[in-house]
Structures are given as C-alpha cells and as structure tokens.
Amino acid sequence: MNSMRLLALPFFCLFFTNSVYAQPVSQNLNAPAGIIIDDPSVLIPSLRAAAEKGEPDAQYSLANIYQQGLGVDISYVRAAFWYKKAADQGMAKAQNNLGNLYTDGLGVERDLLKAFDYYNKAAAQNLPLAQYNLALAYKNGIGTEKNILRSIDLFAKAGEQGISDANLNVGLMYFFGDNVRQNRATAADWFSKAAKDGNSEAQYYLAVMSEKGDGITQDYLAAIYFYTEAAEHGYIPAMYNLGIMYATGTGTKPNNEKAAYWFTQAAEAGNADAQYNIGVMYDVGGGVPQNLAKAVEWYIKAAEQGSVDAQYNLAVKYLDGEGITKNKGRAIYWFTKAAEQGDEDAKANLAELLKNDSDDE
C-alpha cells in the first residue's frame, strides 16, 4: 500500500512576455574618470544649480537620483519634474524614462497617450530602449492603435542595437502565433538573435525546440547546450529541464550527480517539481547521499506548493515514520490533499485509513 513514487516527468514550461514597457535603464552619474561617488546625494546642490540654469544633462541626472533613491528618498514627483525639463529640450533618454513614469502613473497621473508620445519622440532619435517600448505599445495597442507590422519593425531596430528582449518578443509572437501566423522556424531565428546576446529566456526556448524537434532539427546536444546557458544565467525552468535530461540520459549519459545539482538549483529557487525530484533523490540516494530527513524537507516544500506526487510521498513518510516522526493524522491530511487533486492511489490509501479508524471504534 505504501509504495513511494519516483521522479516527476519533464515539463516544457513555455512563457509569454506580457510586459507593457521596458524598465528604465539605470545609468551612472557623469562623474569624472577615476572618481567613485559613495553618496550621490552630495551632488544634488551642484546638479540642482546646473539644472535650474537649464542644463539637460544635470536635469536628467537629478531626475535619475530621485527616481532610484540614490542617497535620498525616492521621489517620483521630483523625478518626473526634472525628466520633463530635460525631455522638453529633446533629450531622448529623459523622454523614454518620462514615458515609463506616465505608463505606471508614478509621480504623474497615468496617461498612456502621453507615454506613447514620449516613447515616439525618443524612438525617433534612435534610442533603442524607446524603440522597444514603442514596439510594445504598437503590439498591445497601448496609447495607440495596434500596428503589428510597425511593432515588429521597431522590435527589429531595437534588437539590432542590443535590446535582446526585442528579438525575444518577435520570437514569442511567431512561436505562439500572437497577432501573426504561427511559424516555429521563424521564431527560432528570432530566438537565436536574442540568445546570442545572452537572453536566457530565448536560450530556453531554443533548448525546448531543439529537444522536441519543434521548428528546428531535433538535436539533444544543442538542447543541453542552450539549457545549460539559460540555467547558468539563473533561468529556473531551464535548470529543471536540464536536471531531467541528466536524470533520464537524454542526449547524454545518465548523470545523477548533475541531475541532483540542477534540481537543487531549481528547488532552491522555488520550483515545486524540482523540490519533489530532489526529495526523491535524497529518498533513494540517487546522485546525493541518502538522507530521509532531507527528502521529507523537500517533499514538504513541494507539497505546500501543490505538488500531488510530493503530497502523496509525504503522506507515506508520515504513515511509515521515515525521515520524520510517525503521524497518522498528518498522513491522512496529505493523502486528502492529493486525493482532492484526483490522485487515485491517495484516494485508495485514504479510504483504507479511514475504514481502519472506523473499525477501531
């Protein structure tokens, strides 16, 4: 009755980038070469004096200090005031950042039409981040009518100037068929451009497509390469899928030690399936020394996030008293949780436990 379950099957978790605008780029203040500024607030008096004289660089830097709270309390109102001063003089990066504030309603009343106008002005000066923001506005119809062709054109221009998320977004559009005809091969081309700039999400999609042979030739070595690149940049789904490839020996020799390493990385980042899998590995001593207490710790983390397999295994541990103090009540609790998700084995175990309780009365 109390058989334990083993590793979860791989999943190919596919995400879509839903961001409406790009975050403003934090830029260092224009300090003379060789000077390190520990407290940017000391610059405020001189910057304010220059800003009040109409110097756009000083206005922008002062706005940046207030927006990021560099040595002072964050003040979006003051940031918006000084960005506008610089923006009105034609400074593209000030126009872009002011557009972000209007998009979020920070320091100003939210106004998507004004945000679009400022992005448009900055993009006309070839500022890549503004081109990206404007592309998102056209794509999603934010502050303007939808214009997919214009959106793709702007994404392409931003991507050529190093905004990897721009190439990623076009790839996602073709991958999912979002406002364009779905074309996985075209998606792969755009993902490749973003991946070359180190975009971990694009690397992940290329890995999934290589593993499945979806839109490109199936190539397990390429899948491992791109999963590794994405995982080493902290992309959690890539860590998990890489662990699966090493655990199952897909495209490589089985390697439980590497599987355990990547499951641990993903588990520590909060991935429930990885938490369950590393729990199993501690349970059976695969890739790590057997440690039933650690297995239970990971089962608990995964179970609390809703992993039905972890809930089931945790119930078994409580019932048998392995790695944790025997507790029939907790076993019933976790079998119930798993049963509520439709797990047939949990239902059977729960029914037997409750029947035995009834017979004992």
Q: Helical amount among residues, as a percent range?
A: 55-70%
Mean pLDDT, to the nearest integer, reads 91
Which structural class do the helices and strands define?
Answer: mainly alpha
- Shape descriptor reads elongated
Commentary on this structure:
There is one protein chain. The radius of gyration is 27 Å and the shape is elongated. The chain starts with 43 loop residues before the first helix and ends with a helix. It has helices spanning 44-52, 56-68, 76-87, 92-104, 112-123, 128-140, 148-160, 164-176, 184-196, 200-212, 220-232, 236-248, 256-268, 272-284, 292-304, 308-320, 328-340, 344-360. The chain is built from 18 helices and no strands. Helix content is 64%, strand content 0%. Residues 10-35 have low confidence and may be disordered. The chain has 361 residues and is mostly helical.
In short:
This protein is mainly α. It is 64% helix and 0% strand.
Which key terms come to mind for this protein?
single chain; 361 residues; mainly alpha
Produce the secondary structure layout.
Layout (H helix, E strand, L loop, with lengths): L43 H9 L3 H13 L7 H12 L4 H13 L7 H12 L4 H13 L7 H13 L3 H13 L7 H13 L3 H13 L7 H13 L3 H13 L7 H13 L3 H13 L7 H13 L3 H13 L7 H13 L3 H17 L1
Helix pairs in contact: 1-2, 2-3, 3-4, 4-5, 5-6, 6-7, 7-8, 8-9, 9-10, 10-11, 11-12, 12-13, 13-14, 14-15, 15-16, 16-17, 17-18
